[in-house]
Amino acid sequence: MHLRKAKKNDLDSVYKLIYSATRRGKILKRTQDDLRNILHCFWVAEQEGVIYACCALEIYNKKLAEIRSLVVDPVKEKKGIASALVDHCIKEAKEKGIYEVLVITNRENLFRRHGFSEQLHDQKALFLRP
């Protein structure tokens, strides 16, 4: 397994991973235009030139970043790839002096193992879709 920052020519592979995960109800949708604009935020895992996992660290300001779009091809799951991607995002945030890293997930156990904790305590996050 080789982890690296995403490059422009990785766009189609990252989009396919995310599209497949959204169809399985695992993550939120991202358009190709959206991904094109933030591809520099992504880490990818590849083997023999094939990208099989991705994760983004979107930095909003010096205080806050968010880990988003964590996807591992189902064939490669349960091999520590998701953990390795999360580790890279956390390391990048620390190197940039980011104060807090946010994640919205249904994979609570994975993120708790990396030091994340619930901060809202029985409060609900609300979203507006214009």
Low-confidence regions: none
Tell me the count of domains. 1
Task: Look up the CATH topology.
Answer: Aminopeptidase
Topology, number of strands? 5
Strand content: 25-35%
Architecture in CATH? 3-Layer(aba) Sandwich
Q: How confident overall, as mean pLDDT?
A: 91
CATH class: Alpha Beta
- For the termini, the CA-CA separation is 40 Å
Q: Shape, please?
A: globular
Give the fraction of residues assigned to helices: 25-40%
Element order, helices and strands? Answer: EHHEEEHEH
How would you summarize this macromolecular structure in one to three sentences?
This protein has 130 residues and is α+β, with helices and mostly antiparallel strands. It is 31% helix and 25% strand.
Description:
Helices cover 31% and strands 25% of the residues. It has helices spanning 11-23, 32-38, 81-95, 108-112; strands at residues 2-5, 42-47, 50-59, 64-72, 100-103. The chain is globular and about 40 Å long. It is α+β, with helices and mostly antiparallel strands and 130 residues long. Strands 1-2-3-4-5 form a five-stranded mixed beta sheet. It has one domain: Gcn5-related N-acetyltransferase (GNAT) (Aminopeptidase), CATH 3.40.630.
Write the layout of secondary structure elements.
Layout: E1 2-5, H1 11-23, H2 32-38, E2 42-47, E3 50-59, E4 64-72, H3 81-95, E5 100-103, H4 108-112
Parallel strand pairs: 4-5
Antiparallel strand pairs: 1-2, 2-3, 3-4
Please tag this protein with its features.
25% strand, Aminopeptidase, 130 residues, alpha+beta
